Amino acid sequence: MTAARITLLGRPGCHLCDDARQVISRVATELGVTWEERDITQSADDLREFWEKIPVTFVDGVQHDFWRVSEERLRAALR
């Protein structure tokens, strides 16, 4: 199984996470790349490190964005 190219870190009830999810889903579908979502409330380390930054987006394991996901920047990073 291939690792996801995009990882979204978020938490339930986060409206910015909902917005990020829509952008990521659209871009990933259009470009044919895989993505996954991780709930920071399930990991004490994630919660401590990312609580004030969510949603946080990683591309190929490298932090890409936080708070807002720019569709244009995400597309460029995936090229």
From TrEMBL:
Residue runs in coiled coils: none
Signal peptide range: none
Superkingdom as given in the UniProt entry: Bacteria
Pfam families: Glrx-like
Protein name: Glutaredoxin family protein
